Each structure stands twice: as structure tokens, then as C-alpha cells.
Amino acid sequence: MAQVTEPYLREQLEKRREELKQAINSPAAVAPAAFFSLLHEVDAALDRMNDGTFGICEACHDTIEKDRLIADPLVRLCLDHLSSEEQRALEGDLELASRIQRGLLPQPNLQFRDWRVHYEYKPAGLVSGDYCDVISPSGGDGALTFLLGDVAGKGVAASLLMTHLHAMFRSLSAMETSLDKLLELGNRIFCESTIAGQYATLVCGRATGTGELEIASAGHLPVLHIAAKGDVERISATGLPLGMFSTTHYSVRRLQLHPGDALLLFTDGISEARDVAGDEYGVDRLSLVAAERHGWAPRELMAACMADVQRFSGGHRRDDQTLMAVYRDHPVGSSLNE
């Protein structure tokens, strides 16, 4: 178990132990036998921390999967040594989590005024640590907000943080604050509500009806600005990833997109895809593919880019892959539709 998480888990277990004791002693306690059994498990986990065996599988004495320990610090067995019934229950939980996570995604083809947004979201497993959202302004006025991010790590723990980001920025966006303050507030909340050492990269942008666009990036990969005439500009990060320091400040990049211009946002599952020789796909190749298709509608641009990534990697996907295109079209109205 990584040392950065054990003090946090110890604190959480001690809090749970006190809450269980209070519940057991409460006159209104229900099913006290179950409370005593759970209290025994919490005490046993704390004992394993004290003797240095916490996070070690009791069957094979290898390390238990980190994301499972974060999700449930009472586990004692690694995945390989769960019973058949326990494995089926875990698979059912993961399938349910996958359905819930996909239900949080925005519609894949969105239009607001003269902006069109399309994305491709491809988890490496049942659940994903990639974050993708598009938020329309209330009442049809204001700016369209789009977000794309990547939580450090994989599996269940990363997917839990992804849903945390989704809920957090959905709530914060209703405050109608400036983009830099939105990221700063989100970063502070993320720092205070996650385990030390956990972080996420994120790009957040706002698009107005006049073609003006703001972008702030918390340590994420560069955003590609693809001009209608074929030029490609890289827009770099404007601050540190979320979760590193609670007092991080973010600057905002402002630019004007003309009809036919597009922004391309992506996670590292795209740029770090590898071929059979182990070579990375890279940002340069993605830029070239996008530049050759300048002016293309977002759906077609996404399809071409993803197809090139698949050809390069031979169809093998080791990490979550998310790609988003924000395209400025000629004015078409003022409603958000699929």
C-alpha cells in the first residue's frame, strides 16, 4: 500500500470505528450483531496497519490492488483469490458502475448556436478515469462550457474520482464565475476531498455566440487549434493539475475561432498509444492527421483521428481514450440539440 494513502485510510477507519461504537450504544440501534461484526473487521484492519500487513493478500501474500483498497479498506484478498461468488458479485458491481458512469456522459453530438461538439469515449475496461462533459448555459444565454480531463491511475478508484469531478463541476458551473476562479475553486475542493497524492489533469473551455473562446488547462495535454486553412496551434497548460496544491492559480487563454475552425482535446490514451514496436503515437501525428482534415465537421474529424490511432496501435488499447472536437460552424440557431 502506498504510504501517501495509508494515513488517510487509518484516519477514515478510526472515524468509522467511533461511529460504529456510537451506533452500538444508541438506544435505537438496529441489528447490533451486524454492527459488532463490522466493528471487529475495522479493528482487524487497524491491527494489520499496526503490524505492517495491511494491503497484503492473506492467501498469496502479494499486494492487494490499490484501487480496491481505496474503495474498501477492509478487503483482505487480491482479485486472484476471491471466491467464484465474490468474483461474480464484483463483476456485477463493475457492470453497474459502468452503466452509471456512461449515464453521466453528455450527448455525443451537440449543437449550441454556431458551435458543434462531438466526442469519442473509449474506456480500456468496464470503468474509466477519463472525464468528459459539455454544459449548456441556463435559458439558452451565455457560454457553452466543455471539459475534458484525466484522473491519475486506472480502475475503480480513478472512476470514482471521475464521477467526483463530474458532480463538482456541474455544481460549480451554476455559480457563473470566471473560468480561472472556477478552476481554482474546483482545485481547492478536489484537494480537500481526496487522498494525498491523487490528482487529475483537466481542460475547461467556454465558447460564446460570437466565436470568442476561453481556455484554462490544469496540467493537461496541449489543445490543438485547427484553423480552417489548415494551420495547427498548440495551446499549452495554464496551471498545475488539480489536487497538487490547494492554492494553485490558473490563467485563461482567449482566442477567436472563425467558421470552419476547430479545437481538438484528447487524453493520453490517444497520444501514448503504442504500435507493435513500442513507439508512441504522439501529439505530432495527431496534429498532422487533424491538419490534413481541416474544416471537416466534428463527427468526421473524430472518426478519421480515431481510425488513425487504431491503425497505428493495431487495435490494442492499454488506456482509456477520449477525444473531443469543438467546431465553429456558421450560425444555426440558439438551442442545444443532439
Characteristic key phrases:
single chain; 338 residues; alpha+beta; Four Helix Bundle (Hemerythrin (Met), subunit A); Phosphatase 2c, domain 1; 2 domains; 5-stranded antiparallel sheet; 9 helices; 11 strands; globular; disordered C terminus
Structural account:
- The chain is globular, with a radius of gyration of 23 Å.
- It contains nine helices and eleven strands.
- The protein has a six-stranded antiparallel sheet with strand order 1-2-11-10-7-8.
- It folds into two domains: 77 residues, DksA, coiled-coil domain (Four Helix Bundle (Hemerythrin (Met), subunit A), Up-down Bundle); 225 residues, Phosphatase 2c, domain 1 (4-Layer Sandwich).
- The C terminus is likely disordered.
- A hairpin with an 8-residue loop joins β3 and β4.
- Helices cover 38% and strands 20% of the residues.
- With 338 residues, the chain is α+β, with helices and mostly antiparallel strands.
In short:
The chain has helices at residues 6-25, 32-51, 66-71, 84-103, 155-173, 179-193, 268-271, 282-291, 298-313, and strands at 109-112, 115-122, 130-135, 144-151, 200-207, 212-218, 223-226, 232-235, 253-256, 262-266, 321-328. With 338 residues, it is α+β, with helices and mostly antiparallel strands.
